[in-house]
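Intended use. Records like the one below are meant for learning the mapping from a protein sequence to its folded structure. Do not use them to infer anything beyond what is encoded.
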Amino acid sequence: MPLTVGVSLGAAGIAAVFVLLAFSAFFSSSETAIFSLPAEWFERQAATGDPRGAVLKGLHDDPHRLLVTLLVGNNVVNIAISSIVTVLIAGYLPSGAAIAATTLCTSLLVLVFGEIVPKAFGLGNAETWSLRVASPVRLVERTLSPIITLFDAATRRMNAYISGDANIEKPYTD
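Structure written out for the chain above:
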């Protein structure tokens, strides 16, 4: 492959990783923000007439499906990040070193920029961030509805089998 093609693919890969990290941050911060608020807050927001409050209450009314939506989105994004970083690094290092470098690099990127910092932001700005992300989260839930429904049903069954209760998120949403 000519050097210019490799460089442009590398630049595109790096750009894609940054975009995907932003999506990872979105899902992580949304999860923390929404699940950190008490149920009464969602009731009050829905009663204000703000359409975002109504959307958010609708999402919060099914916490398991909401959690599945956020986790599916975040995991797809994080796996894509790992795949792209693997392709970017694999051409420069022998396979063993590439695996180690990819694992280290991806873990660092995802943990810092896709998890820890976004979750802290979500917790510190829970009310305003929850309202801001309500419609995008609903869009993701609707767009990925077939896969969300599949994971929702499968995990409810597993939760019921393991713990005797399909709604294990309930203590976190009361």
